[in-house]
Amino acid sequence: MRFTRRFTRIFIILCLIAVFVTTPILLFSSHRLIHLGSDASKEFVGDLSILKHRIEVQALNAVQQEEVENLKEPILDVYRDGNQISAVSLYTIDKNDSLGQPKNVSLAGNNVTTHDTKKESQQSLPEETLATREKALEKPRPKEVQHSQNVQSHPRRALDERVKEIKDQLIRAKAFLNFAPAGSNSNFVKEIKLRIKDLERAAGEVSKDSDLSRRAIQKMKAMSATLSKASRLFPDCSAMVKKLRAMTYNAEEQLRTQKNQASFLENLAGRTTPKGLHCLSMRLTTEYFALQSEEQILPNQHKFQNPDLHHFAVFSDNVLACSAVVNSTVSTARAPEKIVFHIVTDSLNLPAMTMWFLSNPPGKATIQIQSIDMFDWSPNKDTLQKQESLDPRYTSPLNHLRFYLPNIFPSLNKIVLLDHDVVVKRDLSGLWHINMKGKVNGAVETCLEGEPSFRRMDMLINFTDPMVATKFDVKSCTWAFGMNLFDLQEWRKRNLTGLYHNYLELGSNRPLMKAGTLPIGWMTFYKHTRAIDRRWHVLGLGYDSGVKLNEIEQAAVIHYDGVLKPWLEIGLQKLKPYWKKHVRYEHPFMQQCNIHG
After folding, report:
1. What is the per-residue burial (b if ≥16 Cβ within 10 Å, else e) of 463-488?
2. What are the transmembrane regions (predicted)?
3. Of the candidates 37, 54, 45, 32, which has an alpha carbon nearest to the alpha carbon of residue 187?
4. Sheet holding 112-114, edge to edge
5. Share of the chain above pLDDT 70, in %
6. Contact 170, 200 (CB under 8 A)
7. Separation of alpha carbons 317 and 315, rounded Å
8. Residue 314 pairs with which residues in a beta bridge?
9. Do residues 185 and 138 make contact, with C-beta atoms less than 8 angstroms apart?
10. Which residue, of 277, 370, 470, 489, has the greatest Cβ tally within 10 A?
11. Residue range 268-286, pLDDT digits in tens
């Protein structure tokens, strides 16, 4: 009896221990099963929604769309970089394709080419890893592609293949993301969003393959696997083409807008006087009026009209620019005592211009400063304003004063006209020994195709006008202003100033030419221009023209034609030193006005 009670007590104790041990395990397992069932149902619903979307897309593709039979989509290149093959290229469109689908669509990074629209919905984008991508690059390509590769001579093009592949992967991933049903939160959507975020963070702003980290390459491989999964979920290539086309159009519109804004701001900066130059003019003007009347006179006035000397003319209202032209010319001259500079400005800047050269005399050279308001026959402002131009410099009377050189200097036989945005690098006395052969204007030609300075007559002159088409040859060679040698005696004989007036009046009544002095100069000096050696005058330093360094070094005069003037902050930094070396930055007024080199 006692043994039975003892056995019963031990059994009850063991049962209680078993209950206490197994109960928590059963409760935890049931809780996990409940959550697992909910997650599985969500994933199933998400994948089911994608599957439903695929079925709907395929059903829509099977419907014959009669209303768009004749619709043709434009031939478009997506992501084209110079001679590089597009990341996504849409080549030719089959004329027999009623839906206007691309005949040959190549997706770089997926290596997929669709040739038949009937097979598009049945084909899936094959998996591609980085290794298969590199092998695919070694395979023979169509002749068009091979030709493009042969043209490439820069080694960077081949080395940046992985960077381009990263860009391709991001573009395709975002396109696939847009294919998911609205509001979908499936594992695929979460995964592709994560891959995009990781790859963008790993690649950053890298532009060369050598700068890519190991982590970025790993993220590329992970993205490649995700894109392969996406290609199986969305095998409809035509939908991908349309999505990429829409993305490309939006990107091109944004790029066009940004370029227009950048061009507008660049031209606005080119027309604006910097604060430092305005300050310098004010300080010089104040100092000028503090002088006595006899102290305001420039020396060597007896040389102003001496025809045996070398005379240079500059028409400008920019003190700093004129000082650079004068200093560079005098510093490179073999006989600076023979040089006479004639600077014509407006009445507002006359005191400042005079004061600068009174306090900074150009060595042995002679300076004459005049105001345009001193001339009764100066260009008519009303006539010039009729020329339509957003840039007031093109219609400035000071800019058109060059057509009145014989009137301004009645006793001179020859004169060299320099623009205020040039720098002289060689002695210019040889210009006076050039045989003009009866011509009026000695200038460098700009009709050589392929050169940065290339210009055609019909670029600035309206050859649809009967008078222009009859009188001028559209194929005749053009030339440049900036450094010109003028034979004033021949000019007077031919009365070219009167001819300029005639063209100016005709242009105010009908559109004969664009605004500015160059097109009307081509018309005025037509068949009166003598071509001189190109080394006398090199253009293209005022914009990104790609002018060669050896051409600059060999030039006698370099010209900052364009908006990017050397005294502006937007000027090309690599070309500014040629100009800065002739500016006196140590002058007290320059320091006070924060004009530094």
Report:
1. eebeebeeebeeeeebbbbbbbbbbb
2. 7-28
3. 45
4. 77-78, 88-90, 105-107, 112-114
5. 73
6. yes
7. 7
8. 343
9. no
10. 277
11. 887 788 999 999 999 999 9
